[in-house]
Backbone:
């Protein structure tokens, strides 16, 4: 990953990956118990808004639900699937046919020579404190082709980004981070303002899907913006 003002080290990413190794076997089931099909449908709705691309990169895609959705849509000719948890990576591979795996480069870290049309960050920025979120977003900006797009899918507690939820949404987030403190699946103890941080670098994003009164949000950012060119 390219160096930034605040470095997000490979060891930091690997630590989060090991935390997700511990819960890989229960993760999908736990998500379904809590959210039903809402998160999968949100991802599907967001993907449907994307134009077909030559290359799409997914960073932190977990067990591969989103990769399967992209394949079903035939959203790109080729993919990079970047996931720090080796067990999650294996689960993602298992969702594909042998022919489909030929279209995907599976890796635990972002290749330094990666050039891509679309980067998707599904529920990954919330694992890091704000300075490391900035570092990851800055790294993403260097890998996007001119005119490329960044799709951020994550939790949102910011009223400036449409959050209209209640105390129980905030309480759930506190419980979530309490759980990840035990497993080591997060480097932060609170939700960073991921959409505000993306706005700061890429310019104002376009919300394309949401759930639970904008508590969970998907926004698209364009690589060509005055803020990005000046970064």
Residues:
């Amino acid at each position: 990953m390219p160096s930034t003002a605040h470095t997000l080290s490979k060891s930091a990413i690997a630590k989060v990956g090991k935390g997700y190794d511990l819960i890989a076997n229960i993760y999908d089931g736990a998500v379904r118990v809590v959210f039903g099909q809402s998160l999968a449908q949100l991802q599907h709705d967001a993907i449907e808004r994307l134009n077909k691309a030559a290359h799409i990169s997914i960073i932190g895609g977990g067990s591969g639900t989103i990769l399967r959705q992209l394949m079903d849509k035939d959203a790109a000719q080729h993919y990079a699937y970047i996931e720090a948890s080796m067990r999650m990576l294996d689960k993602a591979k298992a969702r594909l046919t042998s022919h489909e795996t030929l279209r995907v480069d599976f890796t635990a870290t972002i290749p330094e020579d990666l050039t891509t049309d679309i980067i998707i960050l599904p529920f990954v920025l919330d694992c890091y404190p704000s300075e490391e979120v900035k570092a990851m977003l800055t790294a993403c900006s260097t890998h996007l082709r001119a005119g490329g797009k960044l799709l951020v899918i994550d939790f949102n507690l910011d009223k400036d980004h449409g959050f209209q939820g209640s105390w129980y949404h905030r309480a759930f987030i506190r419980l979530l981070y309490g759980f990840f403190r035990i497993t080591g699946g997060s480097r932060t103890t609170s939700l960073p303002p991921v959409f505000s941080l993306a706005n700061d670098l890429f310019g104002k994003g376009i919300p394309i899907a949401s759930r639970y009164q904008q508590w969970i949000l998907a926004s698209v950012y364009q690589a060509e913006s005055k803020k990005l060119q000046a970064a």
